[in-house]
Amino acid sequence: MxxxxxxxxxxxxxxxxxxxxxxxxxxxxxxxxxxxERVTVAVxxxxxxxxxxxxxxxxxxxxxxxxxxxxxxxxxxxxxVREVNRALQSLLGGSSGYVxxxxxxxxxxxxxxxxxxxxxxxxxxxx
Length: 127
Prior knowledge:
By secondary structure, this protein is an alpha/beta fold. It is 36% helix and 30% strand. It is built from 3 helices and 8 strands, in the order βαββββαβββα. The strands form 3 sheets. The protein has a 4-stranded mixed β-sheet with strand order 2-1-5-6, covered by helices on one side. Helix 1 (14-30) runs antiparallel to helix 2 (74-91). The longest helix has 18 residues, at 74-91. It is elongated.
């Protein structure tokens, strides 16, 4: 049930949004092994006038994925950071950015009113 939030320093574009959503969904499924139908992606845009690095205007991006803690290895998370960076660099014309994998305790987050811990316990009872 990952939630991916992407902030792109670019002109808003429905085409760019669709490509970013597809890339982030694909990588979250492929690299982190998450169920595609549970991956949620939100894309926001920041104008170049509002993005700077070292106090100098720059282009870039910030992506944060929230996942349940202890569900992915260190290597999987490192690969995700690398591949998301590469995919967004390609979409944004070479701009570098930040990718954060935020691990949240299963009892501290959920979807549709149920924590991940409750979902896990329910699945274990069905086995």
